[in-house]
């Protein structure tokens, strides 16, 4: 490999306050990047990108305003960054060597990049039989979100009734399996009959329903939760959250992981939740969370989850799209009901 | 005093699902009650009622349905019960003697009653210079609610920005003073300019606004919270809660004490809160609470609060209505914007 590489990358051309992001907002370009040794600062690494994680929260970084999600915004004309698996080409940090495969919390959506080693979450041991894409799924953002939601905030007990929305999404698949490991009864909602079948047959959910064929969420929850809901991991917000608040048990916990039904709308057009008063009598705790506040727990999570995967207690479903050019399409697939499991872009094999 | 007394009491004649309760729902009657020694079971007391506490949560016990507030309902044709100060006439419990003045968590709204001593919260020492009505205000339900909201759930730090709605109500007056003791900047909303003046001049609030003259809550909060809100003690729900969620700081806490703006409406007609998504990015914790879950902390609270009152750090505002016949009118005064401070019915001097 020479000292200068042709580098294809996605950058932010314009913010997208509402609706689905298009190629007007995220643009693809080719630039030259010097990876010569003297272009790499101290404690930095030149890396090639293997895999990129595509997650719903990215939508919030494209709005151009803090309003609505209060998540830090991508900068105009800059390459966007995501969670990713990278391989070291050249290292200016003694902790890492050429050829090391690393998990990068802030990987540029580019074929090559020079990154500070402080962005590295962990080194990956490719010999222990876990696929690299799992490091972005069950061992990455969605797995960590599921773990924080269930283990840290939801804390269900053996026999607790747990409800998870967007159950066939990457967070939902992991969260359902974690709740089952805790001995809970777990019900999921998802967008098609096939997905309901999938979460029951492959991911251990006790039952589930298709929210597109249930006109009355309240009636559905009455049916699936005759004993009420103890923990609701909310991934959708809006009407489903409102319906859940009519079925909560005393001291129910509602970790708010994200609200995919609401991301593409400005806030005044979002669905209002009218029954928050239920939270008083039932003493419900509802709590939003962002993974940035839980990095200090990432090691605990990774240790738990690696063991569950090796013991076969957590299974994965990864959709691998080939080629960095598929990034925008991959992002938008999260907001269509066709998506199942974790979406990953494979940049290099 | 003979063995049989004429006893005037308020009982529930009909549930009131929405609107303001009237004399159709709560009726007044006179019955005979035997307080003869052999009418008093073991571990029970015959008492005369001195003072009764009138609190907004009582509204929720009159709806006839658990829906909406999930608070235990009063029983039809039975005397309703509230927090009250009573004096022992005859005791069948060795811990209490004739003449003792007691705080009863579940005092019948009647002139006389026979009650289990397990309902007694504490014995009152009438010689320490605290007025009996304060035992229902700063040392009773509203003081305890303020303490749980601020000290247990809100936990503001020195310099935190604290917002309290219904600030001139009984909970608000106590909560504002507790937050000031913690060294916070405290702003209140209340229903008139006079009340704004009152909370600033008498109860230590740094500032406040009249929600009836602010057409745009969002603009008001921008003005009063240039550095955002760290703790919001919510007593009203609805539009004010929604506006607050546009001004919350990272890790803000919102203890939900009650939602007086929403009590008299069925839930589908309540104001929807559209911006719960803000709770994700700001990692906000919103938590409903009922005092029944915090009785084990009542002793800690009473010790703190008694000291604050004796040191002059917590001042009271009690509206004392004379005569048990004023109970219904006193309850409804809570839902009119004329109410200030703690409403107490004095049954016997």
UniProtKB/TrEMBL annotation, chains A, B:
Residues covered by the Enoyl reductase (ER) domain: 64-345
Q: Which PANTHER family match?
A: 2-ALKENAL REDUCTASE (NADP(+)-DEPENDENT)-LIKE, PROSTAGLANDIN REDUCTASE
Its protein name is 2-alkenal reductase (NADP(+)-dependent)-like isoform X1
**InterPro entries with a match to the protein in the record:** ADH-like_C, ADH_N_2, ER, GroES-like_sf, MDR_fam, NAD(P)-bd_dom_sf
Q: Keywords in UniProt for this one?
A: Oxidoreductase
Q: Which domain of life is it from?
A: Eukaryota
Q: What SUPFAM superfamilies does this protein map onto?
A: GroES-like, NAD(P)-binding Rossmann-fold domains
Which GO-annotated molecular functions does the record name? 2-alkenal reductase [NAD(P)H] activity
- Tell me the Pfam families matching this sequence: ADH_N_2 (PF16884), ADH_zinc_N (PF00107)
